[in-house]
Amino acid sequence: xxxxxxxxxxxxxxxxxxxxxxxxxxxxxxxxxxxxxxxxxxxxxxxxxxxxxxxxxxxxxxxxxxxxxxxxxxxxxxxxxxxxxxxxxxxxxxxxxxxxxxxxxxxxxxxxxxxxxxxxxxxxxxxxxxxxxxxxxxxxxxxxxxxxxxxxxxxxxxxxxxxxxxxxxxxxxxxxxxxxxxxxxxxxxxxxxxxxxxxxxxxxxxxxxxxxxxxxxxxxxxxxxxxxxxxxxxxxxxxxxxxxxxxxxxxxxxxxxxxxxxxxxxxxxxxxxxxxxxxxxxxxxxxxxxxxxxxxxxxxxxxxxxxxxxxxxxxxxxxxxxxxxxxxxxxxxxxxxxxxxxxxxxxxxxxxxxxxxxxxxxxxxxxxxxxxxxxxxxxxxxxxxxxxxxxxxxxxxxxxxxxxxxxxxxxxxxxxxxxxxxxxxxxxxxxxxxxxxxxxxxxxxxxxxxxxxxxxxxxxxxxxxxxxxxxxxxxxxxxxxxxxxxxxxxxxxxxxxxxxxxxxxxxxxxxxxxxxxxxxxxxxxxxxxxxxxxxxxxxxxxx
Length: 543
Description:
By secondary structure, the protein is of the alpha/beta class.
């Protein structure tokens, strides 16, 4: 497998180059694989993976996109196994929680909705990104170490620039990506990580302390008087300058980096297989391999949506529903065909990890829908429009393809999110009592989980599925299948948002995770400061 740029400027590079570039190409666009390996997640292939662990699935997906010439199979297996070692994760990796059946809501085939929750946060930083980020950290260290041994550069060598010895990973975060990257990269001998995050109350205290109290010398944090999107624009500027990327060996582990997207494909594959396994063992007429399920995905910068779409293109039988908060980045694109970064107008919400309007992953999504279109969101013309808060309007054809690929996109306000959190926390019941008005056990969830959940009506969950279920294109259901199964992707542990749970939702809750270190290490970037120069100074001091 080789890689190219979405804008067509770079035609043929290795996985190593795509990884160490951070995903950006110097002439615009981001890296994508030459092709999507079709039918690699269809029912025949899934049958061989059905009894496999999350690690087995992650190794299988990685091998589809990384040539053995770059990472021999034994090395690749070792890297993935080290990254996903059992002591870092839940014994089941991603537990699937049965939340019950709503018998009042039925699709056009008369099936009632069965709701499940996939808890993809039992991990080092308590967020779903860890399941990919831990592996990305191993890749970065592997290639950085090998690059030092070569004493040279990758295919992106720039003149006679004297490069620094370590790779320097730039992270922009609204709270979750930063701590995930730090946990994946801390202590690695060939990598430094620099994490920028917005100040004020734009992230929770727990999220900040997860980043600023890590004592490892290769971890560096800075807080800005601005938004995450403001930091992103600084990074885009740095990555557009070949002399700086070469000198500082700049890369990224945000969803700009293809390796992040690739790793998350395993999450959706695992969720699908475990859901099918639960349904087939529970009921004789339950789901079987090849039957479709719906997965509801919370989205800010679209990285997880991109991974789900790639999984679907590879053959995984899933239908995708996207959830936004009131920043509505993907919602505008999906319903209006309008890509817009509203500079200075980013709303601060209770689901702050989704408070982003800058999406490198969107470029890859559009490429999967229209691979013949050379336009990239990172070419000079598009960047200028986005920086000036001018919209980019998609063609009617691309908008139609997007609406075919994604089943729906819905919004939830802070008020709706709180109402749903309260409703879910109050409902109790045993599995035998799940009759539409009772949900199994007591559920405490973070605001991101509830921004994507079906609407709540007092103590009873109402599943707003009629629109999606009635679309014939998604009704590839075999005879005898008795339920319309929807899996809600829970992306963050409630501890990360315990202040929202207790203070905003007034739900009794005791945090279970604490910090072993107390001293914070973090630099401050004032609004009027030159953030690029301040960051370059940090890079010089660290190297």
